[in-house]
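pasting input
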Amino acid sequence: MNISDAAADSGLPAKTIRYYEDIGLVSPGRLANGYRDYDEHDLHKLRFLQRARGLGFSVEDCRVLLSLYEDRNRASADVKKIAKTHLIEIERKIAELQSLRDTLSDLVQSCHGDDRPNCPIINDLAR
Amino acid sequence: MNISDAAADSGLPAKTIRYYEDIGLVSPGRLANGYRDYDEHDLHKLRFLQRARGLGFSVEDCRVLLSLYEDRNRASADVKKIAKTHLIEIERKIAELQSLRDTLSDLVQSCHGDDRPNCPIINDLAR
DNA sequence: TCTTGACCTTCCAGTTGCTGGAAAGTCTAT
DNA sequence: ATAGACTTTCCAGCAACTGGAAGGTCAAGA
């Protein structure tokens, strides 16, 4: 299967698939003409990657998860640890964004937003 | 005032302050020896930047906000518009992260995390 | 006066995860 | 034969810094 079909199948752009090969995540075979040739196993890995990236795992996390995915003797604890760390990080980001939103929301509400120059948002930033 | 004092005053790393000069945000005068020399006005702008960046505004947003900050005749509506757009973007990110967290949290809970290879997290990623 | 150490300068490279584009080769259909 | 839709590689760029190297400057102490 060539790269554009692999892209359609996995939901990843062809450019991204080539990039994943560059960084050693999925290396398909090659045809006589030099074209990449994806087999079922490659496709599984690409789908795995697109899903894991969609869940916000870093590419380096994905590399580890992929190797665990390939390892029939992995311990589920290893996977859980990565996922848990990621979960905590996501929760930290949510909290940070919420506090940001609260501050910003207050500022936006306090600004009447008309032609006059007086602006509580700018005043706050400058304080 | 030299760069390390400006850094201490504004809460920005010296490296970042030099970077802001590179991209044309804050350009201090220079002493005879070539050292940067920050005056009160520069410091105000640096503080403004660190606060606006802390609120998650992009550097390009900051550039506009800074020019509005400098403009005594700005309309508060202009500022409010930028802040509102940013607020919406933050809310979008929060919602995205929350949905991510819910999915990931379910996965983590369903994985017993022991020595055995069976792992619902990997299974889900591979599905 | 010399030296040490803490500053300062510029410039270049690397980070993350792609994405766009150029130049050139290949395949398929008309 | 030729058009156009693929494919390849390589190089550059995005955001917003950050680290490090190589070298200049300055203030304090022996």
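fyi Residues 2-4, 14, 18, 33-36 of chain A lie near DNA strand D (CB under 10 Å from a C1').
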